[in-house]
Description:
The complex is a heterodimer.
Chain A: E1 4-7, E2 10-13, E3 18-25, E4 33-38, E5 45-49, E6 53-54, E7 62-67, E8 70-76, E9 85-90, E10 96-97, E11 101-105
Parallel strand pairs in A: 2-11
Antiparallel strand pairs in A: 1-3, 3-8, 4-5, 4-9, 5-6, 7-8, 9-10, 9-11
Chain B: E1 3-7, E2 11-12, E3 18-25, E4 34-39, E5 45-51, E6 58-60, E7 68-73, E8 78-83, E9 92-99, E10 105-108, E11 112-116
Parallel strand pairs in B: 2-11
Antiparallel strand pairs in B: 1-3, 3-8, 4-5, 4-9, 5-6, 7-8, 9-10, 9-11
Amino acid sequence: DIQMTQSPSSLSASVGDRVTITCQASQDISDFLSWYQHKPGKAPKLLIYDASHLGTGVPSRFSGSGSGTDFTLTISGLQPEDFATYYCQQYDTLYTFGPGTKVDIK
Amino acid sequence: EVQLVESGGAVVQPGGSLRLSCAASGFKFDDYTMHWVRLRPGKGLEWVSFISWNGVSTNYAGSVEGRFTISRDNKKNSLYLQMNSLRAEDTALYYCAKRADYNYFDYWGQGTMVTVSS
């Protein structure tokens, strides 16, 4: 099974900050990686697919990079609506999610 | 507009059974593979199962294999998850999700809560 790790597990940030979340796969997954945003009581939302492609309607302040085993989600200019938990997911072999990164207000 | 609405969550005793449903609208349901994903308290997201567009192909996470059965009714635009021999560790918010053009998930429902407790 492919295992996914994320760091940090949580972070505190201010509106306008640049935030970076990293995700690592236990083996090479090429670019078969997506990122989701999840707020309590809401449906998870696709942000990034194929490691770096922006989902439909997702603001351009979100970006993704990486390939192989190491990936990054960056939020350039954190907005109030961005406080949430972020998950990476591999879909190279079945599906595995990372443990999540909670972004809250400093 | 794509909508996925889960239902059927409840409090059930260990060893019990439950059937979850997901009503889909806003897209051609019978063109897409569908998934169940769960969020256990204090844990992250966990993929549970998928079913192909025609119901022929299914797959399950090891933690539920042999106890859960995924199915669909394309005439009713509905996805189901039959959960048997439920355990405390199955307590979770269960989401249905639509496969995109490739293997990531482009739309999710808001979830239905399953609590397994005596």
